């Protein structure tokens, strides 16, 4: 279907834009503290969201939307995840950090059985277990080569899973742009918490690059949301993993980072586990549709 092809293109664009944002933030992060970057980028990003809401949105954002309990909790978890992830990419290879963060769907699958009382079959439990085995390979746990800094992207993955859980709980009448606005304000303002640890005076080039990341993030958000609304989720979800390929490309070409064999194989296990979960979800959806189409009586 043409809409699916368009959706796949938009999802790919969104993932490429998100990886570009991470690369720019890492480049600027060599000179500017993480919290300060979050504040500067947040000012530009929230301004863009506000302009888009004022000029183009059919459903206006109100204060009570922004203060919705689950919107605020989502913003707080995104704040913590952002700080951990941006700090981690300054310390470990960017592709490695990105791969570990994409453990989040696997964590969410495992947690959904206990938090949302969803049915998780044996194949998905196998995928969850394999994903965690992949983490052990990537981090080198138990081999004496464990790097404690890898706990930061792992912590970010847990927080991203919590963020997605909060997203599920947001009331249906809260518009998507309100959710994005609350998150943007929380993440940007949250960067002010780092002020006591010292900021620097940013140069014009760095401010310009951070303004660019705000645009890039906006493109990523718009592409992702549009893709999800017009395409089949089962087709789109695997495209999200292309961000790892982009991160590996940026890491190799800009910082000459080549993943170690154990990190490569462990990352492949994490990706394969995530794809298996998505595949099983697609089968479950088909069974549910077939069952619902059966005549009663």
Describe the 3D structure.
By secondary structure, the chain is mainly α. Helix content is 75%, strand content 0%. It has 13 helices and no strands. The longest helix has 33 residues, at 261-293. The two termini are 35 Å apart. The model has no long low-confidence stretch (mean pLDDT 83).
How much strand?
Answer: under 5%
Question: How many helix segments?
Answer: 13
Radius of gyration over all CA atoms, rounded: 20 Å
Would you count the extended β strands for me? Answer: 0
* Helical coverage, percent range: over 70%
Uncertain stretches: none
Mean pLDDT: 83
Compute the separation of the termini in Å. 35 Å
Short synopsis of the structure:
The chain is an all-alpha fold and 297 residues long.
Give the topology, please:
Elements: H1 2-29, H2 34-55, H3 63-66, H4 69-88, H5 94-101, H6 104-115, H7 122-139, H8 151-169, H9 176-190, H10 204-230, H11 233-236, H12 242-255, H13 261-293
């Amino acid at each position: 279907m043409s809409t699916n092809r368009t959706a796949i293109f938009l999802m790919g664009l969104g993932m490429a834009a998100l990886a570009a944002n991470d690369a720019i933030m890492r480049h600027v992060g060599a000179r500017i503290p993480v919290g300060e970057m979050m504040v500067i980028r947040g000012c530009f990003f929230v301004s863009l969201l506000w302009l888009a809401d004022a000029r183009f949105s059919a459903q206006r954002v109100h204060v009570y939307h922004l203060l919705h309990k689950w919107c605020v909790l989502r913003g707080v978890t995104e704040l913590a995840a952002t700080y951990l992830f941006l700090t981690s990419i300054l310390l470990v290879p960017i592709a490695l950090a990105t791969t570990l963060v994409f453990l989040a769907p696997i964590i969410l699958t495992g947690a959904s059985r206990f938090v949302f009382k969803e049915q998780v079959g044996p194949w998905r439990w196998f995928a969850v277990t394999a994903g965690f085995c992949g983490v052990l390979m990537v981090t080198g746990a138990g081999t004496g080569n464990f790097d404690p800094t890898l706990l930061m992207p792992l912590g970010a993955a847990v927080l991203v899973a919590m963020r997605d859980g909060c997203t599920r709980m947001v009331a249906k009448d809260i518009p998507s742009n309100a959710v994005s606005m609350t998150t943007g304000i929380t993440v940007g303002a949250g960067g002010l918490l780092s002020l006591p640890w010292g900021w620097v005076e940013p140069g014009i080039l760095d401010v310009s690059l951070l303004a660019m990341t705000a645009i890039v993030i906006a493109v990523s958000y718009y592409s992702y949301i549009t893709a999800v609304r017009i395409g089949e989720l089962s087709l789109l979800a695997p495209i999200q993993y292309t961000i790892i390929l982009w991160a590996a490309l940026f890491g190799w070409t800009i910082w000459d980072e080549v993943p170690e064999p154990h990190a490569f194989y462990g990352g492949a296990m994490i990706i394969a586990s995530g794809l298996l979960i998505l595949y099983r979800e697609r089968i479950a959806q088909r069974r549910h549709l077939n069952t619902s189409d059966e005549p009663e009586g």
